[in-house]
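Hi R.,

Here's the input for the pyridoxal-5'-phosphate complex you asked about:
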Amino acid sequence: MVARRVYADNAGTTPMHPQVLEEMLPYFTEKFGNPSSIHFFGREAKQAMDNARERLARALGARSDEIYFTGSGTEADNWAVKGVALANRAKGNHIITTKIEHHAIIHTCEYLEKHGFDVTYLDVDQYGKISMDQLKQSINDRTILISIMFANNEIGTIQPAEEIGKIAKEKGIYFHTDAVQAMGNTVIDVNKLNVDLLSMSGHKIRGPKGIGALFIRKGVKIDNLIHGGAQERKKRSGTENVAAVVGLGKAAQLAADNLEEHVGHMTFLRDRLINGIKERIQYTRLNGHPTERLVNNVNFSFDFVEGEALLLSLDMVGIAASSGSACTSGALDPSHVLMAIGLSHETAHGSLRMSLGDINTQEDIDYILEQLPPIVNRLRELSPLFKQCEGGKTCV
Ligand SMILES: *Cc1c(COP(=O)(O)O)cnc(C)c1O
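And here is the predicted structure with pyridoxal-5'-phosphate in place:
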């Protein structure tokens, strides 16, 4: 029925790359071995895992024995924070994070608070950036971990990870970063960043769902989260999801090989979309940092419009986007990220995230720019506040 379908929700999930699927398929069928078995079938599966680990390590500038596979990006985040907290309790019980982390970090920290840990949630400015001064002032002699995301999944803001890493190293505090959104969209080098732990997820980089990984620098003290049969060099038990691991490895390799082209293509489309919206629609606000933002992230607030209504109308013309974060859409609470950058409830509710990917084209952007303005206008016509505003009163 719809003229066109445009997928602009790549921060929610990405379509698997055909080459990823191709490499995975044999591990569902003839190459079904358990990597812990010593016979041929097991060795074949083990070899595939080693290869994937090597590819992931290369994409991050890490050593392959510093890569541990997990069941998701969420598990990697949980493991980093809980694992470091529990293993370093004798040293201290203070953790520093931010108010705009993914729920995989925020809810984990809240859980730890119930078990005797102190957590500082750093503020962010109107663009979503932390203050380095506030970070330094928050450090005390009980601080054992700083967990700050590389780039935000809702508004795309990129944090100064390298500076944070430098401070953490000086103070002898572990630094974890959630790089789930950054991976594949920017260069990541764990040594340049001085990062001790880094989370990633398969399905955000055109790999499969239900697979993630945690980089753990050699020597970092961390407890296990999942106990059992001693897989992943005794750190993460459970028979490995070999096909998904293979898929994640391939996705990471493709992302690294295509990074330069991807960044160019995304930046072009993103800026065309941002500028097009600014030109065509009044009473809008670009959320996130104007320049230090992910190459594929567009997030706008439209005054006098409900984000959910906007999403439904866009869906009817074949455009898939998100309001706030996918995890919170459907819930009535406004996004904690949009609240942290100082938006009012109303403005936060009128926000729309469009996250682009490799499969998007210039025609997709033009289609969004053709469809979005009349939809926003139509919804605004239904708003009594907008009518007042149009009547010449002060608005916004
Ligand atoms: C998607 C996402 C996660 C969770 O990853 P899953 O693999 O979906 O569990 C964590 N952090 C960020 C920033 C994300 O965007």
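One thing worth noting: The longest strand covers residues 297-302.

Cheers,
M.
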